[in-house]
Write a structure and sequence with these properties.
The chain is mainly alpha-helical and 348 residues long. 58% of the residues lie in helices and 6% in strands. The protein is built from 12 helices and 9 strands. The strands form 4 sheets. A 3-stranded antiparallel β-sheet has the order 3-6-7.
Length: 348
């Protein structure tokens, strides 16, 4: 990224983004991470910060957040790729091992399977598992077998959630009463990245038709089938813009690239704060939202097919957000993973 962390309360104001990202990684793994019920070969993140000692397996009705763990996995994979880019193969292998352990922990905590009741959750984990598999191929020239199992299982689920009610798109949950951007954006990106551009294109086109707000240039939350035909949820969230941006870049037609550039500009106009990067969303789930958008803005910042001013805008939004978050020490896993993800995005 083009900006420097600055002083903004950062723990190491003279450090680089990679160094700050490493500090954030260590903080998350130490304060939140632990073996699942003390089982060797597993890893999981606690909802709230604590010590590194093993903790008992949560009861089936106790609270946990599948999709927070998916983004924790993505952040670990980020750390692996960052270490690899810096020539630190031993550190990259350590991150690969932890990522495999976390994927195993997620499966175990989810009663020995990857599917659950929410297609957005499954799309996020499919994306993270595919990136884990990519890291394994880069480091070992071998796929990660459990990641492959997750990808196959979750991809089947996402395909089964697509139908032509409301003209296309996938549902948010097994209730099949709501189609939304949080499920369709990451599903489109996953399809685009895993050799299914036809499905990715169908979803992206459906999102553009049904959930794009031409006044802001952003995507709204979702749509319910109703007695009148359509009942639209018009709320605009930061994270909904990110995976669509990345899917457009993956598909890569001239129209897609133009739409991607327009989306970055719309994000800057409506979701950015001058000098402070992107707006931060409240709440437990909301504490992940801006980190997700930063992950994909960082991809745009390095994509030379986009105009220079678009790349600079994306880079500055990420760096500004990283500056705000650098000195924080969140007590919720979601916020801690967001901070790590944003610093990793700035480091990339």
């Amino acid at each position: 990224m083009t900006a420097h962390p600055g002083n903004a309360g950062a723990p190491n104001p003279d450090g680089t983004w990679p160094a700050l990202a490493e500090q954030a990684a260590a903080a998350v793994n130490t304060r939140f991470g632990h073996r699942l019920a003390g089982l060797p070969g597993t890893w999981i993140g606690s909802i709230e910060a604590g010590g590194p000692e093993p903790r008992p397996l949560q009861l089936p009705w106790s609270e946990w957040h599948y999709w927070w763990q998916a983004h924790y996995l993505d952040a670990i994979v980020d750390a692996g790729f960052l270490a690899l880019a810096r020539g630190r193969r031993t550190a990259a292998h350590a991150e690969l091992r932890r990522a495999k352990e976390l994927l195993r922990g997620i499966m175990a905590r989810n009663f020995g399977r990857f599917p659950n009741s929410f297609y957005d959750d499954m799309a996020w984990l499919a994306l993270a598992a595919a990136r884990l598999n990519g890291l394994s191929l880069r480091l070992t020239a071998r796929p990660a077998w459990l990641a492959g199992l997750a990808i196959a299982s979750l991809t089947r689920q996402l395909h089964g959630a697509y139908d032509m009610v409301l003209g296309g798109g996938i549902y948010w949950s097994r209730k099949r009463d709501f189609k939304n951007t949080p499920a369709n954006g990451p599903a489109a990106l996953h399809c685009a990245r895993t050799g299914d551009p036809g499905t990715a294109r169908a979803i992206v086109d459906w999102l553009r038709t049904e959930l794009f707000d031409p006044e802001t240039g952003l995507y709204v939350d979702g749509i319910h089938p109703s007695a009148t035909g359509r009942d639209v949820e018009n709320t605009i969230y930061t994270y909904n813009q990110g995976p669509i941006l990345a899917a457009l870049l993956e598909l890569g037609s001239r129209r897609d690239l133009d739409d991607a550039a327009d989306l970055v500009d719309a994000v800057n106009r409506h979701l950015g704060t001058p000098g402070l990067g992107l707006r931060l969303e409240p709440g437990g789930d909301g504490s992940l939202f801006t980190g997700i958008l930063c992950r994909y803005l960082a991809i745009a910042a390095h994509d030379e097919r986009l105009p220079e001013h678009t790349r600079e805008t994306a880079s500055n939004l990420v760096a500004g957000t990283a500056t705000v978050l650098a000195g924080q020490a969140p007590v919720l896993l979601s916020a801690a993973v967001q901070r790590w993800s944003v610093l990793s995005a700035a480091a990339g």
